[in-house]
Structures are given as structure tokens and as C-alpha cells.
Amino acid sequence: MSRTFTNAGLFGLTTTTGITAVPLSIFCRFLPTNAGASQLCGIWNGASDTFDAFYLETTASSASVRAVTAAGSLFSLATSSAGFSINVWNTSLAVFTSATSRDVYLNGTNKGSDTISRTPSSLSRIAVAITGKLTGSGAMIGDLADITFWNAALTEEEGLAMHLGVNPRHVRPSNVIDDFPLWGLSSPEPNFGTPARTLALTGSPAKNNHGPATLWTPKWAAAAPLIEAAGGAVTSPYYAYAQQ
User: Fold this and answer.
1) Which of 15, 116, 117, 156 sits a CA distance of 20 to 30 A from 97?
2) How far, in Å, are 98, 155, 217 from residue 242 at the CA level?
3) pTM (predicted TM-score)
4) Domain residues of the chain, as ranges?
5) Per residue in 196-211, pLDDT tens?
């Protein structure tokens, strides 16, 4: 399932965060209903109206997605090389490797990068469909699902696997700190990374259909890659499913 956000009065917040520094990665599935700017999800300093955060957003100028590092209301932006599609499910992965390295992937590819040095401070909570500063702003107009945070820098191949349907919490599971499927069955929404840190919803965003994802756990040999590639081409999103 997913949650539908239609205005600035619909959003989700936690009261803590388990990640406060790089490296980290953020993933979500999103179904936008317009090409406007939207807040997707991120980790924020919730005690100040200064922008200090790592977050994913869409931008109206090119219908692209951006991985943003904000510190003292100064911004370093990695922007996808292509635009997202309206009224269909898209995926976005932000990878913050260091203070001088951030990448964003749209639908498993369309990479954008940025290397301007930026380090947020006093990160304290997760925000969904809104900025997470003290006075929240912005909105997500559309559906969100499978919001996941890792304390590791994921690869492009892992982002593509999730775009093709692999459940995010099955990718580097030991590094999954927060995972909100957004099933729409209860508020607060459960967290399959850190169960005690649930996502409190404001405004009762409606339950909707889920994005395209598998319901089973792919299995592979411990030494095998998540994506099997030959000559640079992806040949299988799941690699040796049902190996024991």
C-alpha cells in the first residue's frame, strides 16, 4: 500500500533519528500528480528554522529529483539528469557518501552528482512530505511508499534493483536504520528498521495502492553481487533467486 498526500496539511514526522552523519542513503517510491516542487523525505534539524538536513525533493524547473545537503540554509544539490513521469510510480535514491560527495538516481539511472562541501548539524528527526525544520513547509502532491534510510552509501546497481521491484529493506539489511513501507493501515506508521521509532502522521493521508515491489525475499549466495552484470548490462534484478 501507500499514502496519498494532497496538500501541506498532510505529512509525517518522527521524534528522533538514528542517522546524523554521512555516509547515508535515502530511497523512496513516489507517484507525483503534477510536475511541481515536492518534499519527499529526509533527515532534519527539527529544533531550528535554519535548513540543516539531508533530503530528497522534486523540482518544478525540470521535473527532476534532487539529493540535497543543507547546512545553515546553504544548499548543495545533486540533480537527476532526466525528469520524472506524472501519474506513474517513480523511484529515487539519494546517496550521501561524504561532505563532498552526493549522488541522486531517478528510476535506477539518470544519475546526478555534486561535490560542494556541506555538513548539516543537530539532525534530530525524519520528515515525510514536508520539510522537517522547526516550522515545516512545502508539500508532496501524490503518493509515497517504501521510504528507507541506510547508514551506508548504496550503489547504482542497488538503486536499480529496488526500482525493478526489490524490497528496500532486503538491500543491505544490516545497514537499514529506518524503513517505512507506508502501508496505510495505522498511524503511527510502523518502522521495520528501528521499530521504536514510528512515523506519526498529521492530517490522515489516505491509503492507496502500493508501488511495484516484490513481496518475497530474494536470496543469493553471500559472496554474489545483488545485480549480475555481463558486459555492463544488467541481466537479472534478483540474482539466483531461491539459492539456499
Assistant:
1) 15
2) 36, 23, 9
3) 0.88
4) 2-214
5) 999 999 999 999 988 7
